[in-house]
Specification:
Helices cover about 35% and strands about 30% of the residues. By secondary structure, the chain is α+β, with helices and mostly antiparallel strands. It has 2 domains: about 1-235, Hsp33 domain (3-Layer(bab) Sandwich); about 240-294, Alpha-Beta Complex (CBS domain Like). A 10-stranded mixed β-sheet has the order 7-6-3-4-5-10-1-2-9-8. A two-stranded antiparallel ribbon has the order 11-12. A hairpin with a 6-residue loop joins strand 11 (about 265-270) and strand 12 (about 275-280). The radius of gyration is 21 Å and the shape is globular.
Length: about 290
C-alpha cells in the first residue's frame, strides 16, 4: 500500500500531488509478468492513476485512463476508484524493445505516439464523461501534461518514473503532479521552473529519500510547501463473479453454446488481474435462462 500526498505552496497558487508508487508498480509487474519496457510504460500509467485519485469525490466514481499510441505495447489502460484501488492492463505485456544506448528504456517508441490519450470519468450514474487529446511523445508523463494543459488551460507539470532493477523487479517508482491554480503569478511560475530545473528523475528521488517532506525541503524549499493531507492507494482489482457473468453473456448465446458443445464448461479470466473464473455447463445454462427471463 502506498500513500498519495496533497500539498500547496505558501502563496496557495500551486498545488502538488506526489506518491512513491514502488509497491503498486511492483505488484502490477508481478500480476502481468511484464517485460522491462512494459513495466516502465504501464508503471507510469499506473502511477498516474494513483495521482488522479486525488480528484475523485463520489462514492461510486472512478477514472479510467487509456493510451493507444500504435506502438508494440498496444492498448494500455489503468483505472482507479474512490477507495484508492488501482488496476491496469496492457495488451502486449511480454513484448520488449531495445533500450536507448543500452541504458534508458525506450518507452516512447514502445507506446508510440500515433494515437490518443483518453481520460474517462465514470461517476457511477449517467453517461461517463471523457476527455481526449492526441499523444505528443508516447512517454506518458508529457502526454498527460499536455492533456491537463489543454483541458484546464493552466500550467501543469507531470513527472512519472519507473526504475527497473537488474532482476526485472521494480527498484523504485514515483509520480509528481504540479498545477498552477487560478490567480497564480509569473513570479510563482519562475520560482517553480527554477525548482524543477534542479529536479532529478522522480524514480531516483524515491530511491534516495525516505519521506515526502525531505523531497519538498530539498527541491522546493523556496516555495515553502505545506502538506495538506494523505490517502492510501493500492493495486487491487475490483473484479468479481457477477462482473465476469456479464462478460460471459456478452459473448452471445450462439457462441456460448458452441463452446459448451466442445468443452462442457467455460473459463474466463479478468484482463486486469488474470484471475480465472470457471463456469460449469449447468451454471452457464442457468445464466442464459435467467437472462432470457429478465
Amino acid at each position: 500500500m502506498s500513500k498519495l500526498y496533497r500539498a500547496i505552496n505558501k502563496n496557495e497558487t500551486i498545488r502538488f500531488l506526489i506518491i512513491n508508487s514502488t509497491e503498486i508498480v511492483e505488484k502490477m509487474r508481478i500480476t502481468h509478468n511484464t517485460s522491462s519496457t512494459a513495466t516502465a510504460a504501464l508503471g507510469r500509467l499506473t502511477t498516474m492513476s494513483a495521482l488522479l485519485k486525488a480528484d475523485i469525490k463520489g462514492e461510486k466514481e472512478k477514472v479510467i485512463s487509456k493510451i493507444d499510441g500504435g506502438g508494440p505495447a498496444g492498448l494500455l489502460i489503468s483505472e482507479v476508484n474512490n477507495k484508492g484501488d488501482i488496476r491496469s492492463y496492457i495488451q502486449n505485456p511480454e513484448i520488449d524493445i531495445p533500450s536507448i544506448n543500452n541504458t534508458k528504456l525506450n518507452v516512447g517508441v514502445y507506446v508510440g505516439k500515433n494515437g490518443s490519450l483518453a481520460v474517462i470519468r465514470d461517476f457511477g450514474f449517467g453517461k461517463p464523461y471523457g476527455g481526449y487529446t492526441n499523444l505528443v511523445s508516447g512517454e506518458i508523463a508529457e502526454d498527460f501534461a499536455n492533456y491537463f494543459y489543454q483541458s484546464a488551460q493552466l500550467p501543469t507539470v507531470v513527472n512519472l518514473g519507473v526504475l527497473v532493477d537488474k532482476d526485472f523487479s521494480v527498484k523504485s517508482a514515483g509520480g509528481l503532479f504540479i498545477q498552477a491554480l487560478p490567480g497564480y503569478t509569473d513570479e510563482d511560475i519562475d520560482v517553480l521552473e527554477e525548482c524543477i530545473n534542479n529536479l532529478p528523475p522522480i524514480s531516483s528521488i524515491f530511491s534516495e529519500y525516505n519521506s515526502v517532506e525531505e523531497i519538498f525541503n530539498n527541491f522546493f524549499k523556496k516555495m515553502e510547501i505545506q502538506i495538506l493531507g494523505e490517502e492510501e492507494v493500492k493495486y487491487k482489482c475490483s473484479c468479481n463473479r457477477e462482473n465476469i457473468e456479464r462478460a460471459l453473456i456478452s459473448i452471445g448465446e450462439d457462441e456460448i453454446k458452441k463452446i459448451l458443445e466442445e468443452d462442457h464448461h467455460i473459463e474466463l479470466s479478468c484482463s486486469y488481474c488474470n484471475k480465472k473464473y470457471d463456469f460449469s455447463e449447468e451454471e452457464v445454462n442457468k445464466i442464459l435462462k435467467e437472462t432470457k427471463a429478465s
